[in-house]
Amino acid sequence: MKKIISLSLVLVLCVTSKKVTAAEDWGQNGHRSTAQIAQKYLSKKAIRRITKLLDGNSIAVASTYADEIKSDKAFSGYSKWHYVNIPSGKTYAEVEQELGENAVWGIEECIAKLESEDTERRDKQFYLKMLIHLVGDLHQPLHVGHAHDKGGNDIKVKWFGRDSNLHRVWDSNMINKYDMSFTELSVHAQKISKAEIKEIKKGNAETWALESQTIAEAIYQSVEENRNLGFRYMYDWFPQLKNQLQKGGIRLAKILNEIYG
């Protein structure tokens, strides 16, 4: 009997542990949704070339690679590529030299490596996976948040009564609460016109970062530390989050079509 009880306790602890980990993971669904949306806007030629380079995997599968490698110290040098902290009132060009490597720099570096004939196939796989992820990160507004609070990570809030932080609310809490898979999120993206798509495609990583920064400033102003966020916050902000997923997907497709299309 003691053995049965002990085994049951181990199983319960394992299941509980998995649930906690999943809740903490544009978490995975955000990145996959952005990539799945991008897939709809890729040319047939681009899809063929990208699928071949990824050994048959989709860009949705590849989209989480840059987070998965964080557990390997060999890739620790790429951690700065996931965000960019542009001081309020400044343009990226004004502070570019001070920032060093960042999300905008990383996207430009990936594009350059993918366009170069000197880049080996294995390295092109790496930079493609990084590019897919970084474009997603750039459209999560708090990846372009303040440096002093680590993009909202240090702003403690409650999410439906449970401890969280502002960054996590945008990374995963709202998406998890909405309870749609990444394919459902992409299928149910807002219907937009060709003119709207053309407008979204304008610019580059630098201008898109400044757009995200503007949204981040509004997010900061909308919440106080230790506030309990819930249904009203979802109502006010989730449409903006879905809009960012869609913009990220359209812009990712634009970049990939320019490289592979």
Description of the structure:
The protein is mostly helical and 261 residues long. It has one domain: P1 Nuclease (Orthogonal Bundle). Helices cover 64% and strands 4% of the residues. It has 13 helices and three strands. It has helices at 2-24, 28-40, 44-53, 59-62, 65-68, 92-99, 103-115, 121-138, 166-178, 182-187, 194-201, 205-221, 231-260; strands spanning 156-159, 162-165, 228-229. Strands 2-1-3 form a three-stranded mixed sheet. α2 (28-40) packs across α8 (121-138) and α2 crosses α13 (231-260). It is globular. Residues 1-25 have low confidence and may be disordered.
The order of strands across the largest sheet is 2-1-3
Question: CA-to-CA gap between the ends?
Answer: 64 Å
CATH architecture: Orthogonal Bundle
Task: Summarize the helix and strand pattern as letters.
Answer: HHHHHHHHEEHHHHEH
* Count, helices: 13
Query: What does the overall shape look like?
Result: globular
pLDDT below 50 for ≥5 consecutive residues: which ranges?
Answer: 1-25
CATH class (first level) name: Mainly Alpha
- Any idea how many domains? 1
CATH homology-level superfamily:
P1 Nuclease
Share in β-strands: under 5%
Helix content: 55-70%
Gyration radius, rounded:
19 Å
Number of strands: 3
- CATH names the topology as P1 Nuclease
- The structure class reads mainly alpha
Main sheet overview:
3 strands, mixed
State mean pLDDT (0 to 100 scale): 91
Signal peptide: 1-22
Pfam families: S1-P1_nuclease
Protein name: S1/P1 nuclease
Keywords: Disulfide bond, Endonuclease, Glycoprotein, Hydrolase, Metal-binding, Nuclease, Signal
